[in-house]
Write a structure and sequence with these properties.
Cleaves the gamma-glutamyl peptide bond of glutathione and glutathione conjugates. The protein is an alpha+beta fold. The protein has a single domain (62-281, 387-620), classed as Glutamine Phosphoribosylpyrophosphate, subunit 1, domain 1, CATH 3.60.20. Helices cover 35% and strands 17% of the residues.
Length: 621
């Protein structure tokens, strides 16, 4: 046998691990302590990141407008890395081309921009102003035969340019070029446009250019007919290359002035050169844990804020009798509509700013709430009000973009087709002077709101209400963006939609499809949508409030429960469910209200996830 190596190991009866092992125990303690400390630090860091850091949001955004073509154009701008404001600008210009009866560069409007990350907001007010040589008496006596008297200084193009200067990414020329392509390439007449043409008053004094455009050969445009607007395309290209100065000085200005003078108006070069866009902070309140933002006067945002403050104190829940809730809402709307009628342009009456602060206070809401008892009181009870005749037509553009901005634009010509005056370059001019309160009885006015009395350079009272809602604290929660048309009905509609979404937690489509109420202050009649049962009408009558059930006008020529709906959704806001529990963004338009809803919430499991591919779509039902 060969030699073998002798092992150094020796058999022993002593346990080698039975001795002092304090060193081994100390080392284990250090390891465990270090691990716990590291884990605690990571956990604290994650918690701080979750609650204080920027959310990891990846999406293409969502756009809703009055027309599918304009919605697609807004999405196209976002896909080109344009900002949310860029998308809103292009979509708003597009809406003025495809639905010219509601808005356009011959009118004005207001934009509300909200930065989600910084929680900062701005209102860009580009409402029309009264000409410097305007006279109330001549306007009151002759506006029906001289529609030029109704035309205010258009602010649309200058307001959009102001927004682009502050928030734009893509070149101004590119944005206007995209809108110009819509006019040049052509589009199909929408049901809304065809209906508006059909309902035009024969006796109204329309310009020749207007009739050539909308009544070719004396026949109205019909739904689906193909139309090109090369005149508007050329104008938009000019404004894109030469800038807004081409609209407020030069040949375009002279063209507008000449056409207005031909129809008895008073616009001048001075009116255009002195026009300014206003950039201001919105008014706001906290309602049901949500920050609600809306435009300041001469817009009626303070009345919306007051309505929410009053209703919040009623502690509305599903356990409260339906009749009581309907009564509270009706009486609250009476109060705030009366308050709205007393607003006006604060640059012409400094007392408006002071009264607005009082109007929006919680203490004022408590006082007003106490005035609402079990019986209906007349619309003039305790609160002076002045008759209003706000233009019913408006266009809405809502955008929630990947840059984490929310943008709401509401623009208008006042009544459908504004003044009915169209320039040779295709500018359809507004009739916003109708939004002032006039002396004596004209257009249903029986009294004058002194604060909204017409004055040179003044902006009229406005029911254009772009509104944004976000969580009052932190980043997670419901984000809502909405606007409405319908004149003073916009205030009633938005109030009730917000109650449905924020108080009852109803989804957006249901909130918008529910019937709504609107009290008419002058007649003391409550307009009730057809969805309300006869029992509700009898209930209102028993409370001293006569009700008038009405069916809303169908939009788009399609009727669904007496309405036409436009519904869209952005699938790009669905994330990994272990990180974000997102309700699919709902874009919904019904009769008077357009809204976008986005719910954002974080789970506690972390922030590492990849967003799915996103897209936005638009459906007409």
């Amino acid at each position: 046998m060969g030699s073998q190596d002798i092992s150094p190991l020796r058999e022993t009866s002593k346990d080698p691990f039975s001795g002092d092992c304090s060193c081994r125990q100390d080392g284990l303690t250090v390891i465990i302590t270090a691990c716990l400390t590291f884990a605690t630090g990571v956990t604290v860091a994650l918690i701080m990141q979750i609650y204080f850091g920027d959310p990891q949001i990846f999406h293409q955004g969502a756009v809703v407008t009055d027309a599918a073509r304009c919605t697609a154009l807004g999405i196209e701008v976002l896909n080109k890395q344009g900002s949310s404001v860029d998308a809103a600008i292009t979509s708003a210009l597009c809406s003025g081309i495809i639905n010219p009866h509601t808005a356009g560069i011959g009118g004005g409007g207001v934009m509300l921009v909200h930065d989600i990350r910084k929680n900062e907001s701005r209102v860009i007010d580009f409402r029309e102003t009264a000409p410097f040589s305007i006279q109330e008496e001549s306007l009151r006596k002759a506006w029906e035969t001289k529609p030029g008297l109704l035309v205010g200084v258009p602010g649309m193009i200058k307001g959009l340019h102001e927004a682009h200067q502050s928030y734009g990414r893509l070149p101004w020329r590119q944005l206007l070029g995209l809108a110009a392509d819509v006019a040049q390439d052509g589009f199909n007449v929408t049901h809304d446009l065809a209906t508006a043409i059909k309902e035009m008053k024969e006796e109204q004094n329309y310009s020749d250019k207007f009739r050539e455009t909308f009544l070719p050969d004396g026949q109205p445009l019909l739904p689906g007919m193909f139309v090109r607007r090369p005149d508007l395309a050329a104008l938009l290209d000019l404004l894109g290359s030469a800038g807004v100065s081409a609209f407020y000085s030069g040949n375009v200005t002279q063209e507008i002035i000449s056409e207005v003078l031909n129809f008895g108006g008073t616009l001048s070069e001075e009116d255009f050169s002195n026009y300014t866009v206003l950039v201001e902070n919105p008014v706001h309140t906290v309602y049901q844990g949500h920050l609600v933002l809306s435009p300041s006067p001469p817009h009626v945002g303070p009345a919306l804020i007051t309505a929410l403050n009053i209703l919040e104190g009623f502690n509305i829940t599903s356990q409260v009798a339906r009749e009581n809730i309907l009564h509270w809402i009706t009486e609250t709307l009476k109060v705030v509509l009366a308050l709205a009628s007393s607003l006006g342009d604060p640059f012409y009456d400094v007392s408006i700013s002071h009264s607005v602060e009082d109007m929006m206070s919680k203490s004022k809401a408590n006082f007003l709430r106490q005035q609402i008892d079990s019986q209906s009181f007349p619309s003039d009870h305790g609160i002076p009000h002045f008759s209003m005749e706000s233009g019913p037509s408006a266009s809405q553009v809502l955008v929630m973009g990947p840059d984490d901005y929310i943008v709401a634009v509401v623009s208008s010509l006042n009544r459908p087709f504004g003044s009915g005056i169209m320039t040779s370059s295709g500018i359809l001019l507004n009739s916003q002077m109708l939004d002032f309160s006039w002396m004596n009885e004209t257009e249903g006015h029986s009294s004058s709101g002194l604060r909204n009395f017409i004055q040179p350079g003044k902006r009229p009272l406005s029911f254009l209400l772009p509104t944004v809602v976000r969580p009052s604290e932190g980043m997670c929660g419901t984000y809502l963006c909405l606007g409405a048309n319908g004149g003073d009905k916009a205030l009633s509609s938005i109030t009730q939609v917000l109650v449905n979404v924020l108080t009852y937690n109803k989804n957006l489509s249901e909130s918008l499809s529910l019937g709504r109420l609107h009290p008419q202050l002058q007649s003391n009649i409550l307009e009730v949508d057809s969805e309300f049962p006869e029992e509700d009408i009898k209930y209102f009558t028993s409370r001293g409030q006569p009700g008038d059930r009405r069916r809303r006008k169908e939009r788009g020529g399609v009727v669904a429960r007496s309405r036409c709906f436009l519904l869209g959704a952005g699938s790009g806001l669905q994330y990994d469910k272990t990180v974000y529990q997102n309700k699919v963004t709902q874009l919904y338009r019904q009769a008077q209200v357009v809204a976008v809803l986005w719910k954002l919430s974080r789970s506690r499991s972390g922030l590492n996830s990849k967003a799915s591919e996103s897209s936005s779509w638009f459906i007409v039902i």
